[in-house]
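User: Hi! I'm working on a homework problem where we have to compare a predicted structure to a textbook description. Could you give me the structure for the chain below?
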Amino acid sequence: MCTRVILLLVFTATALLAPPPRLSAAGSPAGDATVPTVGRAWPVGLRPRVLRGWEPPATVYGRGHRGVDLTAAPGAPVRAVAAGRVSFAGRVAGKGVVSVELAGTGDPPLRTTYEPVTASVEEGEEVEPGEVIGAVDTSGSHCAATCVHWGLRRGETYLNPLSLLPPWLLHRGPSRLLPVY
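Assistant: Happy to help. Predicted structure tokens:
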């Protein structure tokens, strides 16, 4: 009986002292803890709805969703979430894609991707957070409605792009203050 009580106390203390998992806006784990919170703007809109969240594949070629799909109107501006250099702006498999290598994010650096996008930037250009890099293209979307697929990679590893954004940008709904007694 005493052993059971001790084990119960140890498990309870471990659960209470462990840091809570970071969650994305879609409720999935935020991903790699080494991803710095460098994002300063959503890629589209002010607080777009996440149509499909990040679902990391179990294996390199496994099923999953290697980014997030965000609601976006056709032709809406697509913005860089953080400062960096455009590493690619062109078409891949018929879709417009823009990739930005994020400044000061380690070796190998983080790289964000946006698709389908009609690019307004060129490879090698420096971009600032919130700077327009293109417009939402209606062709090539894999969503039922128009959306932007936003991805994040470090080298060959896919990460959750929502982990780039600070919690205050992920928050939905009005702030609520507790009463002071």
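For your comparison, note the following. The longest helix spans residues 2-17. The domain at 24-170 is CATH 2.70.70.10 (Glucose Permease (Domain IIA)). Good luck with the assignment!
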